[in-house]
Amino acid sequence: MNVIRYVMCALLALGALGHLYGTFNGYPVGSEVFVWSLSATAYTFAVVTFNLLARSGGRGLLAAGMISAAVWAALALGFGSAIGNIFDPRAIMHAVPSIVLAVLDAKLLLDSPAKSKHLGQA
């Protein structure tokens, strides 16, 4: 499962880098939409960070990873809905890895506390 976690984090990080590029390429620096878009990029990197740190075994980090990934998936799908195409590659690039990470985190949280102390070995 760790390989899947790393792949999903890598895909999400690539999506965040694409979002960062699009932010600088598509909006005037300092504009309202630029700042909001930049904050979404930062949130995506936070989701990746929480999910990478969750391997250390802390249930708090695992919960933060799960919640942040689920929220980001919902926002990505909300973006797809707002533009009229829930299957838009920009939405899918963020939603799919986030959903997978949230499910992996939920599974580990629901496992026994003894197992979740050793997430690095799961």
In short:
With 122 residues, the chain is mostly helical. It is 80% helix and 0% strand.
Explain this structure:
The chain has helices at residues 2-26, 32-53, 59-82, 89-110, 113-116. It is mainly alpha-helical and 122 residues long. It starts with a helix and ends in a 6-residue tail after the last helix.
List keywords for this structure.
single chain, 122 residues, mainly alpha, 5 helices, globular
Give the SSE string. HHHHH
Q: Helix/strand/pairing class, anyone? A: mainly alpha
What percentage of residues falls in helices of 4 or more residues?
A: over 70%
The biggest beta sheet reads: none
Rg result? 15 Å
Record the SSE blueprint.
Blueprint: H1 2-26, H2 32-53, H3 59-82, H4 89-110, H5 113-116
Helix pairs in contact: 1-2, 1-4, 2-3, 3-4
